[in-house]
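Handout, page 2. Input:
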Amino acid sequence: IGCKKQCCTRMWNGEREKAYVVSFAVVDPATKQWWLFEATPDIKEQLQYFNKLTNNAYKYLPDGIFITHAHMGHYTGLAQLGREALGAKNVQVYTLPKMKTFLENNGPWGQLVSLKNIILMPMKPYAIIGLTKDIKVQAFTVPHRDEYSETAGFRISTTQKKYLFIPD
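Output:
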């Protein structure tokens, strides 16, 4: 908003494609499941783009969403899952403890929890959770401005590769 740098003015003038806030999808083709890392303000476009890239071979909504922290580019897209928009049911949202508390105790996020648009899935730092037999995720804390929650990074392990996702 309000950026006058060439990188943005070229987009506003239609000279280049819109740039989206960073998110990351992890896909398991064997089980037809997928997970989204970050619920950005661009989540509507990102979900459409994912479905276009995969020829609608997967469910529209991910099997879970991992949130790194409580800064607007990382979790505000969750609002699109609420009753004013999609009206999603039981979307699993993985967070570290302070982020979980933040979502439960602040509106409109608390309403997403109470109406069961989202189900909070608490993670402990360094604990490994298995999403499928071939995909594991480990959250850990990273230094950042932690005004409202801790900041998570994620190690994602598959049978063939390992990935590191750190915000900002």
